[in-house]
TrEMBL record:
Gene3D superfamilies: P-loop containing nucleotide triphosphate hydrolases. SUPFAM superfamilies: P-loop containing nucleoside triphosphate hydrolases. This is ABC-2 type transport system ATP-binding protein. Residues 4-233 form the ABC transporter domain. It comes from Stigmatella aurantiaca. Belongs to the ABC transporter superfamily. It comes from the Bacteria. The keyword Phosphoprotein does not apply. GO terms for molecular function: ATP binding; ATP hydrolysis activity.
Amino acid sequence: MSGIQVRELAKRFGTRPAVEGLTFEVQPGEVFGLLGPNGAGKTTTVRMLTGLLQPSSGEATVGGHSVRTEGEALRRAVGLLTEQPGLYDRLTARENLRFFIKLHELDEAAVWPRIQSYLERFGLAGREDEACGGFSKGMRQKLAIVRTLVHGPRVIFLDEPTSGLDPESARAVRDAVAELASEGRTIVLCSHNLAEVERLCSRVAVIQGRLLALAPLKELRRAGQSLEIRVEGEGERFRAVLEALPFQPTVLSEGGKLRVLLTEDAQAPDVLSCLVSAGARVHSAVPAHRPLEEVYLELIRQGRV
Ligand SMILES: Nc1ncnc2c1ncn2[C@@H]1O[C@H](COP(=O)(O)OP(=O)(O)OP(=O)(O)O)[C@@H](O)[C@H]1O
């Protein structure tokens, strides 16, 4: 079985639970976001799913390998980009990569063309024979990503992959991630960069010691969608009539702009016909999604109570 299947996974350090009751699945070809505030248990979860830490209870299968009983095979099969690039400063980029090629017992001649294509994509081609100690933070990060991909893993865990990268490099990395997913690889992205999560992930889990939410990104954002309407004159004149609609929407007005919070798409036509009947001249009406950040912060707030 490929992809990731997690069932009631938990880790305690001593008597203190770091994470518990984690249950989710990630399909091949999916970019799955693992979100949560500092100390929420993301790293602990990733370490369990990559065979670096034994769970206290529960089970998970990653790329067909049990995290409990097949740690060795699992560690060889997955790709893991950790927060710290963990490169050998005194070795050149090529030597660093060669080290991992040997570790995975791969034929260098066979894998190098793919590695070379990543080096080119990330602007590192031509720098292969320089010592990593002299690389900038971004160059080290990009080399660490190449290293994560050396063995062509089917399941890839990326912790803050674009941290420290300039916008152009960050885009190159995002494009590479999307491409890896389109090749049918399973990708788990841990990130505090919610704009990046919105761009890359199809589904997310929000955790804080336990699962607070597990949903397609679209669904999370739909919670609290709104309609942004521009009318002639002051929007405030229409607030009362809109709030009197059967579904009693919350209405915010500012100058000629009205923001009507909806609970479902089907309410939009009612809002517009109500406005027109009340004599409003409507210039535009645009559905607006609530930014992921707002939904995320609300989930964390609710999770704390
Ligand atoms: N080896 C360890 N020994 C004891 N406690 C640990 C250990 N590793 C993690 N923890 C605890 O487990 C909890 C979860 O930590 P974890 O590093 O998984 O969080 P995180 O979500 O990755 O945070 P961040 O976003 O800051 O990286 C924290 O309370 C942390 O102190």
